[in-house]
Design a protein that fits this description.
Blueprint: H1 6-21, H2 32-61, H3 69-72, H4 78-118
Length: about 120
């Protein structure tokens, strides 16, 4: 028959309760609030990046890219067409630079969280 020492069980439960209250038994220990806050910042940055990507596609579409044959049916003189393409390329380059900068920031945030988690 199994003998159980209730005092030992009670002591162990008290120890678990104390460790839980000190944050030791949380997923990320006492750093949980900080790490979850970092995850939230990354999520918001990813959402902003997504919106910027959609915006960049919209900006270049105004120059006639992605509109297919209906846009090509209008005749433009050579200078106007070249200017539109030039402007569209410049806008796209700027949009890509902005997206790249945002991606670098998100990667930095992820690396920071990764380091925090490794140190737990």
């Amino acid at each position: 028959m199994l003998k159980v020492n209730l005092n030992e069980v009670d002591d162990e439960l008290s120890s678990l309760r104390e460790r839980f209250e000190m944050g030791e038994l949380k997923a990320f220990g006492p750093h949980q609030t900080n790490i979850l806050g970092q995850f939230q910042q990354i999520r918001l940055a990813q959402a902003e990046l997504s919106m910027k990507q959609i915006d960049s596609n919209t900006r270049t579409a105004k120059h006639g890219f992605g509109q297919g044959a209906k846009d090509r049916s209008r005749k433009k003189d050579s200078f106007e067409e070249t200017t539109d393409i030039s402007r569209a390329i410049k806008d796209k380059e700027q949009a890509f630079a902005e997206l790249e900068e945002m991606m670098d920031g998100i990667c930095g945030q992820i690396a920071k969280v990764n380091q925090l988690v490794k140190n737990i």
